[in-house]
Amino acid sequence: MSDETDVLVLGGAGVDTIVYVPELPLPYADSYMIDSGIRTRAGQTGDFVALGLAALGLRTHHLDLLGDDPEGDLVRALHRERGIALTAIPQPAGTKRAVNLVGPDGRRLSLYDTSRAHADDRLPDPVLRSLAASSRHAHVAITHPCAHALPVLRESSVTLSTDLHDWDGEDPYHEPFAHAADIVFLSATALTDPERIMHRIAERGRAQVVVATAGAEGAQLLADGELTRVPAVAPPAPVVDSNGAGDAFAAAFLFGHLTGEPPRRCALYGAVAGAYACTVPSTETAAIGREELLDRAAESAAAMR
């Protein structure tokens, strides 16, 4: 079967309720008045990666479990409005939900409703095989259904990427994802020795590229056995929210990878897209477009010379 999709995104579909709070951590009080409002919108990690890829012109297909509920309707509407193909497997437990508390500096605290997912949830093998066979690449969220999907994906010819998010380098749940993927993203937030963990991922698994992001401190890139630092890129507007920055980084990096750019250039694309994402309020879903990404990357590369 010929490729019909550039990137198959597995998992990470859901809905977030955004609450802007006066500070984080939030001191105990009987109540807080939220003048900015409390808003619910579609968009969790898989949705944001799919959105970022599609905004950059890549043919994107998203596969996950969704409930027959108002939250699922929001997710379906987001994909329909942005022209992103979506295969939704029925989820009797309902669509995944989270509450994000966002501080004035853009940091967030996420509260995930784990009742909307179960360890025995599965993505049907026939659907998975068919979509993988028609895709150039698959980006895999670290959910239980995706963990079970890893062997099927590895049997196909599709290359894989994953985002381990704030893995501490020790939790064994993340290891199958880290070792199965050709490109691994993770946050350095919970890592005491990012370089050691990055090298360990590459040594024990299939990864040709490992990227550890560190927000305003930039990122570290391990490619071809060489570790290099990727400087952060100045945001094009005031920073209002860090939500989705890692997903934007991953999407732009994959755009570079699939268009034949070397890893360092891919990481620059990621830094540009991540900086852009920090200027988008949590209540909105927006991603940088291809022309703006390339222009800002060219400007940043020139400034670094």
TrEMBL record:
Coiled coil: none
SUPFAM superfamilies: Ribokinase-like (SSF53613)
The UniProt record lists the keyword Magnesium: no
Signal peptide segment: none
UniProt keyword annotations, A-Z: Kinase, Transferase
GO terms for MF: kinase activity
InterPro entries reported in the protein's UniProt record: Carboh/pur_kinase_PfkB_CS (IPR002173), PfkB_dom (IPR011611), Ribokinase-like (IPR029056)
Sequence ranges assigned to domain Carbohydrate kinase PfkB in this UniProt record: 6-285
The name this protein goes by in its record: Carbohydrate kinase PfkB domain-containing protein
